[in-house]
Predict the structure of IF factor.
Amino acid sequence: KGNGMIGNIYSMGLALQALEATRKFYAPRKWDCAQAFSVVSAHDYQQPMAISQVLPALVGRSYLDVAGLDCAATKGMSPSQQLPLSPVLGTHGVPRAHIEVHYSITNMLQGKHFHYSTSVTVPSGSTLLQVMEVAAEENPQTFSFQTEQTSWGTYVTSIHGLAASTDDRTYWQFLSAGDALQEGVGIYKPHDGEHIQAVFSTY
């Protein structure tokens, strides 16, 4: 794409690794990676799987280099541990400000069509998943949902009793201002007044 994106933000890691590892085979022109790397550098990756794919490219390596790594050099090292922030309290224990998020679910694709909207109040910095949980607590008849954990984070499998299906090629797509979210529900943090749409879609 013109802005340096290759697929989407989550496919960038493997794409950059592949292009860097095979750059000498490109002819008659060289691959200009600066724009693609600027896209990656500007994104706040939080999912372990996405980080594990983009980090090698950022340090000028690819998964092909794994066989030649000297693991003995890192023996005894362990990652630093950080306490998670409270969803209600900020970094200094001060109550966080609240925001209002507008949330709607829509199915115009299968079975009985429906469209429901609500507004929920959550602490600033809450994820979309937390917004959905509040909506489901306030109105479980309408906004109940189900998820499953994947290596890419939380995946929404069903909303309002309508489940996604690989056989039917259907899924729940999340949008803001008509654009698909680039982050999953467990990572994306809506801003005050934002309207998030969950639309039952096909691919």
Q: What stands out?
A: The longest helix spans residues 48-58. The CA atoms of residues 107 and 114 lie 5 Å apart. The first strand starts at residue 98 and ends at 107. The two ends are 20 Å apart (CA to CA).
